[in-house]
Amino acid sequence: MEDFVERFEADGAICLRGAIDAKQLELLRLGIERNVSSPSPFFRNLGGENGGFLSDMWSRRYIPEFQRFCMESPAASIAARAMRTDRVRLAQDTWFMKRPGSAERTPWHHDTVVDGPFCSLWVALDPTPRAATLEFVRGSHAWGKALMPKSFFEAPTADTPAVDRFYTEFHGDQSRRDAQEFGEIPDIEADRSAYDIIGWDMQPGDCVLFDARTIHGAPGNSFGHCMRRFVTRWVTDASVVARHGQEMIDALAGAGLDISLRIGGPIRGDMFPEFGPSGMRAA
Questions:
Q1: What share of the chain has pLDDT > 90, as a percent?
Q2: What is the pLDDT of residues 28-59, one digit of tens each?
């Protein structure tokens, strides 16, 4: 297990084979089907008119299959081991579905709305070839600066892809951008050979565990079957809302959720349940 943690800390992303069993995978598949029929205020169609790239967030609250997975799966235990802590909190549940032929690329980005320990567990629900899987720039979690895609620094237009809007919408308004809080992610696709890019051919039940600050992105789905991914994001008691997190706070409050978050404050409350050393829900 120590080797697992050391590789995670060094590379920022690792693949865990067969971490999720068939029963838990079926829960997630059923949950996504239910969620598409009953979307939350955070539901997004990121695929334009074709609707080939769908996502929702924080829907565990009313999708019982997601709730069961989060409570019963080894996800919390894996996250706790990776972050060398006895207790973790579930910061977010989300899922992504790219239907066959969906050309939308998940842009290179990292997740910066939380300061402090912050990791994600990405579960493959369908066979995902290396050519379609989530990719990472190895070691980029240690670059030490919050970076955003080029589209973040440009005023959105009617032609700005929905997927680009999605990956910048919770990261600060124009005044904070002008304060140069963020750097710009380099054009990795223009010179892939200049970066140590890693990724894995994945089967259902395989997981990618990654530091949220590791730069990652994914191609579209050029294959003949749907590719679904369920993600849980985890923090510790040392994690706080980043100073550019007000949009996230406002969005949660605007959706009618009972939260008590503030900039620089800890992530607490019923929406962010705590799990103990065994991965079980803490009292």
A1: 64
A2: 999 999 999 999 999 988 875 556 899 999 99
The average confidence (pLDDT) of the chain is: 88
Residue type, 125: L
Contacts of 215 (CB under 8 A, 6+ apart): 108, 109, 110, 136, 137, 140, 143, 147, 185, 188
Distance CA 229, CA 122 (A): 6
* Domains along the sequence of the chain with CATH: 2-272 (2.60.120.620)
pLDDT 10s digits, 117-155: 999 999 999 999 999 999 999 999 999 888 877 766 666
DSSP codes of every residue in the chain:
-HHHHHHHHHHSEEEETT-S-HHHHHHHHHHHHHHHHS--TT-EETTGGG--EEEEESGGGT-HHHHHHHHHSSHHHHHHHHTT-S-EEEEEEEEEEE-TT----EEEE---SEESSEEEEEEE-S-B-GGGS-EEETTGGGS-S-EE-GGGGS---TTS-HHHHHTTTTS--HHHHHTT--EEPP-GGGGGGGS-EE---B-TT-EEEEETTS-EEE----SSS-EEEEEEEEE-TT-EE-TT-HHHHHHHHHTT------TT-B--STTS-EE-TTSSBP-
- pLDDT for the residue 174: 47
